[in-house]
Amino acid sequence: MKALHIITGLGIGGAEQQLRLLLRHLPVDCEVVTLTNPGAVADGLTADGVRVHHLGMTGNRDLAALPRLVKLIRTGGYDLVHTHLYRACVYGRLAARLAGVKAVVATEHSLGDSQMEGRSLNSGVRALYLASERLGRSTVAVSPTVAERLKQWGVPAPRIEVVPNGIDLPRFRFDPAQRLRTRQRLGLPEDAYVVGGIGRLAAGKRFDVLIRTLTQLPSDYWLLLVGGGPEENLLRRTAHDCGVADRVLFTGERPYVPDGTPGPDLPSLTSAMDLLASPSSEEAFGLAVVEGLAAGLPVLYASCPAVEDLPPQAAADALRVQGGPEVFARALAAARARGPRPRTAPDAAHHYCITRSAAQLMDVYAAVSTSSPSPAPQGASSS
């Protein structure tokens, strides 16, 4: 089988890095096309031996990109097309059907209750999504919670499959030597209690809550923010205005897998943490929480379908916390007072091992490659 993955961009982000990790474990000949921004993840894919095409799309309404994408698919000889993220799903599913590819799959990575990839879920966004969804064979939800949201939107239940995000579990295994090296490299005091936050530095992640939480805690609490994004300068100003800038470290975007980027990668940084906090109130999966659990960290989270969809005992050290800085400060102090725990991954982390997710996705590929196609759009090839 030869598959083409179409994604909106390949800068460092959750869906983008998840795609790179997945391709390392899929027993399929895969290529990738990015509509825009062939960033650091594109370089990583290339280093992995994956061919990456850049479509050069200039914006959401760059309709001239559609025939270029159709031509790329037709000439590539692909058996299956798999789309990721909103814009790529809208353009990619249509292009695949026009190019004559009948096996079309999409993964829904980011559907929340009120937004998708920062877009407000208005009637126009929903209508365009549903119109393009009908051109595929199957829509993959990254959690049962997302599957339920898709059903509420109007996607027929038989077309929805749940394949959760996965993690490279061995790479997140706690390493005490790596912890010491990374903390020394970051200039952390030996007695620092390090609270980690992982994710895009955007308003929806609510990392400002963690910065304000520091003002209510002793001076040996530190905050380690891993990620980049549009809110970084605002978060830095918030830390300065709150008088805690000297206890907030910004690492920038860090890779999940080795790619030669200077500085510690994400697993090294999770080893350096004492607790992971995720104040985001609306998540489709909650990958950062799972990564923290895989590193053996206690976790405080506001929203995490990945944990909420499992039995409580699967992640006993994950506690749901809803509220502002005062609530998080109390929860952090209580977690620290319980003392250090063994840094071992709970059942929840093992449940989301990438090899398991890849095997589940291969089942979806097999099903869509043998099922009867939906009606093709007018003008699509029947071959």
Please, could you describe this protein's structure?
- The protein is an alpha/beta fold and 383 residues long.
- It is built from 15 helices and 15 strands.
- The strands form three sheets. A seven-stranded parallel beta sheet has the order 3-2-1-4-5-8-9, with helices on both faces. It has a six-stranded parallel beta sheet with strand order 12-11-10-13-14-15, with helices on both faces.
- α7 crosses α10 (266-272) and α8 (207-214) crosses α13 (325-337).
- The longest helix has 17 residues, at 354-370.
- The protein is globular, with a radius of gyration of 21 Å.
- The chain starts with a strand and ends in a 13-residue tail after the last helix.
Name a few traits of the molecule.
383 residues, alpha/beta, seven-stranded parallel β-sheet, six-stranded parallel β-sheet, disordered C terminus
Topology:
Layout: E1 2-7, H1 14-23, E2 29-34, H2 40-47, E3 51-54, H3 65-76, E4 80-84, H4 86-98, E5 103-108, E6 115-116, E7 119-120, H5 123-133, E8 138-141, H6 144-153, E9 160-162, H7 176-186, E10 193-198, H8 207-214, E11 221-226, H9 232-241, E12 248-252, H10 266-272, E13 275-278, H11 287-294, E14 299-301, H12 305-308, E15 318-320, H13 325-337, H14 347-351, H15 354-370
Parallel strand pairs: 1-2, 1-4, 2-3, 4-5, 5-8, 8-9, 10-11, 10-13, 11-12, 13-14, 14-15
Antiparallel strand pairs: 6-7
